[in-house]
Write a structure and sequence with these properties.
The chain is of the alpha/beta class. Helix content is about 30%, strand content about 25%.
Length: about 500
């Protein structure tokens, strides 16, 4: 089959990929593009995860797109509603027809002489090749094939069912059963109240506590604004309100962690019965936002605990046994179903191989540029959302920046742009924005960063918004190059050497 060429190839048809396509259509209307999606549906994360109660852990006024107002009454939305929202955005903007479903990208190779990427995807096991001038990754940050499950001793001895939430199917039975959920992150605190509705009892088994905070699922101010203003106005105001509040809370957590910790625990105690052992089960050893906070809408998990339908056990696992889990303390947690909500397995660029002019570039050797591109990798962008705010906030401004670059290439008559490190190099650091286990396990796969911008991956939306929208593209580090083909060879006309 002949190669199929596009100006831009977007990898991934989830929240980021659909948003990227809409921005591209609006800001670069003359550019051709295709979206390569490994699965057979739109939605990414929100199509993959099917466990009971799946929901956002960010409000939809910031997790939603800036170009499509969220109009549902619930700001903390369930997974199917978010998936429908993403599909609606794709259909409304004519993006769906550009998606090539069932195309899993396995490699991408850049050729400077041609100023283009060759992208290889597998469709039903058969390689298919695409070429493009600009490659735009929106493939998320974890493996879709399976989540992370530690190799617990004795797992084969357990007589019940063991399931990871990432592989949950409709036939997983939990009604009337004793359920143990291993983990204390967002997935675990979502599953506890949902499974507790029908299970005999649910135990959340954790090695150590996580910060858990409750907030209403409905944003009263947003709903009041929508009642008196056009949807777009109400959405914009609600979005900015939540952006400012989230930014303020994060910065306060960094400046006064002990005070914020005290207030978080004070609020939590109000939701639990007097005498509950908050120190053991809900008081982390780390500071707020060293790991992501877990959201409990309408205090639903606390209600399940107070009712006796659920409980929390803080201990270490000795081994699995036929009837359940033996703890280091010697106690046996009896179980019919064990849910291993033990985290994700991080994966950069969907696991694809990258080469530039024949040189392989492992993701762990790359150096971040403005949280979007990488040193010495031409015409290549990656969407990586915030860990301390909604993912889509970064996805939106990433798309705006990419469109600025593409338009600048046209305006200057150049073919590619590539960030270049200073001649003396920079001090490199590991890029681990959180101390969470899934980041720690993947540190060797994550691109490196420098001590300052533009080589630093920041998690500050208000600053990034200004930098990516307004700062000059030609900043002394980004090189724009025109490739002029001659009869003998290709030569480079460098517009602005670094």
């Amino acid at each position: 089959m002949a190669e199929q060429h596009f100006d831009v190839v977007i990898v991934g048809a989830g929240l980021s990929g659909i948003g990227a396509a809409v921005h591209l259509q609006q800001r670069c209307p003359d550019k051709s593009y295709a979206i390569l999606e490994g699965r057979n549906a739109i939605g990414g994360t929100w199509d993959l995860f099917r466990y009971p109660g799946i929901r956002s852990d960010s409000d939809m006024h910031t997790l939603g797109y800036q170009f499509k107002p969220w109009t549902d009454a619930k700001a903390i939305a369930d997974g199917p509603s978010i998936k429908s929202y993403v599909r609606e955005a794709a259909d409304e903007h004519g993006v769906t027809e550009h998606i090539r479903f069932g195309h899993k990208v396995i490699s991408a190779s850049w050729e400077t002489e041609k100023a283009r990427w060759q992208v290889t995807a597998e469709q039903n096991g058969t390689p298919t090749t695409f070429t493009c001038a600009f490659l735009y990754m929106c493939s998320g940050y974890y493996k879709y094939d399976a989540g992370y499950t530690p190799d617990f001793e004795g797992m084969a001895d357990f007589s019940g069912e063991i399931v990871h939430p990432q592989l949950w199917t409709e036939d997983v039975a939990y009604a009337g059963k004793k359920v143990v959920i291993i983990g204390s992150g967002a997935t675990a605190v979502t599953l506890v109240p949902e499974l507790a509705k029908d299970a005999d009892h649910v135990v959340m088994l954790q090695r150590s506590p996580t910060y858990v905070v409750s907030r209403p699922a409905r944003d009263r101010i947003a709903n009041a604004l929508r009642a008196i203003l056009p949807d777009s106005w109400a959405y914009s105001l609600s979005r900015w309100k939540n952006i400012r509040l989230t930014s303020w809370f994060y910065k306060r957590s960094q400046a006064k962690p002990e005070k914020v910790k005290e207030n978080l625990l004070k609020m939590l105690r109000k939701h639990l019965k007097p005498g509950y052992d908050v120190d053991t089960h809900f008081t982390p050893s780390y500071g707020p936002w060293d790991q992501r906070l877990c959201l409990v809408p309408d205090a639903d998990m606390f209600e399940a605990i107070n009712s006796g339908k659920a409980s929390v056990v803080t201990d270490h696992i000795e081994r699995f046994e036929e009837k359940g889990i033996r703890l280091k303390s010697g106690d046996l947690l009896e179980a019919d179903l064990i849910v291993t909500a033990t985290g994700l397995d991080l994966q950069v660029f969907g696991g694809m191989d990258i080469t530039v002019d024949g040189k392989s570039l492992p993701s762990g050797d790359l150096v971040n540029y403005k949280g979007i591109m990488f040193a010495d990798v031409p015409n290549f962008a990656n969407t990586f959302g915030y860990t301390n705010a909604s993912w889509t906030l970064k996805a939106d401004i990433t798309a705006e920046y990419v469109c600025r670059l593409i338009n600048h290439l046209d305006e200057t008559g150049t073919d590619y742009c590539v960030p270049q490190l200073p001649s003396g190099g920079i001090n490199l650091e590991n890029n681990t924005p959180l101390s969470s286990g899934y980041f720690a396990r993947a540190v060797d796969r994550l691109p490196k960063q420098g001590p300052e911008m533009p080589w630093q991956l920041t998690h500050d939306y208000l600053n990034d918004r200004k930098v990516l929208r307004e700062d000059p593209l030609e900043d002394g580090f980004m090189k724009f190059v025109a490739v002029e083909a001659s009869t003998d060879a290709s030569t480079e006309k460098v517009l602005n050497p670094a």
